[in-house]
Amino acid sequence: MPTLSPIELCTPRLKLRWMDERDVDAHYAVFSDPDVARYWSSGPWTSLDQSRDHIAATQAAYADGSGLRLGIALAGTGELIGNASLHRFVDGSRRCELGYALARAHWGAGYVSEALRALLNHGFAALDLNRIEADVDPRNAASARVLEKLGFRKEGFMPERWIVQGEPADTVYYGLLRRHWNG
Question: Of the given ranges (64-73, 105-114, 159-168), which has the lowest mean pLDDT?
Fold first, then answer.
């Protein structure tokens, strides 16, 4: 697992930063929205305690190097509108998984692509990753488009990999190799 230290990644419209207790309410607002959680591996949150616990787990992952979840904030206002993460690091193979979520009010503005481009640059350069993977519900066409726009390639399909709120959900695997990254 990589050694992680506090970072802030800046793009023209966004700041990606370490998350802490100040983010509990905004983080909850993102994941309590059924539309945001629709293609997530669990249902929408129903309690602020879920947000507190998730941020505590995020901070523990910073400390032990097992995950880098950055809050996505608007550069102009500092408003937290989502998060993006690199997690499940496999040191010997220099690979990890990518995750992300954005508040519904900010969908369609290109924020996810902008944030992920910065995070992928960081992963390949600063963390010396060779491969980054993503797991997407095939019904989530917008997420698949974002990944493909960034250069990820569709690599596999797993039927009924998840059971979310009692409903089976498939997975399409995407991968991006460092040598294919055009960051």
Answer: 159-168
Q: What gap in Å lies between CA 44 and CA 23, rounded to an integer?
A: 17
Pair 94, 129: CB distance under 8 Å: yes
Per-residue pLDDT for 183 more than 80? no
pLDDT surpassing 70 at residue 31: yes
State how far the Cα of 62 lies from the Cα of 52, in Å rounded to an integer.
Answer: 15
What is the bridge-based pairing of β-strands 167-177 and 131-136? antiparallel
Q: What is the pLDDT of residues 88-130, one digit of tens each?
A: 999 889 999 999 999 999 999 999 999 999 999 999 999 999 9
Tell me the domain boundaries of the chain.
8-135
> What is the architecture of the domain spanning 8-135?
3-Layer(aba) Sandwich (3.40)
Distance CA 101, CA 30 (A): 8
C-alpha 137/C-alpha 1 separation (Å) is 27
What Å distances lie between residue 67 and 13, 38, 108, 149, 163, CA to CA?
A: 24, 23, 27, 24, 24
Token readout for 102 is 């954005």
The stretches of 47-176 forming alpha helices (DSSP H) are 48-64, 111-125, 141-149
Instruction: Calculate the average pLDDT of the chain.
Output: 92
